[in-house]
Amino acid sequence: MSCGEPHETECSEVLDHLYEFLDHEMPDGDCAKFEVHIDECSPCLEKYGLEQAVKKLVKRCCGHDDVPADLRAKVMGRIELIRSGHSVPDHDLVTGRPADAPSASSGDAGRGDRAAGSGEASPA
């Protein structure tokens, strides 16, 4: 998206990094550039306002759940890998299985000692 007006910082750059700006995860110099851009660009200001409202709504509705410490550590580890430019492992953070592997609750997983393939339904 571009508003068609010349800006020191392009609309696409602002929108690509909008959540970093909203989350205060960028250097102060970049924040200052983004603030100037948002102040002078009404389409980007509108998008910023919308994303800010969504973020507040999510926090209000979902912000009370505690995140398990091991999951938090795995997510933070993955973020650090991405920030350092390393490749990200292709496995699920929670289960450790490949992201495209079936879960234990699907298919025949966890059938235990039940007879497989009998094809007969037990009466209810």
TrEMBL record:
Residues 86-124 are annotated as: Disordered. InterPro entries: Anit_sigma_mycothiol_RsrA, Znf_put. Residues 11-44 form the Putative zinc-finger domain. Residues 96-108, 115-124 have a biased composition (Low complexity). NCBIfam families: antisig_RsrA. This is Mycothiol system anti-sigma-R factor.
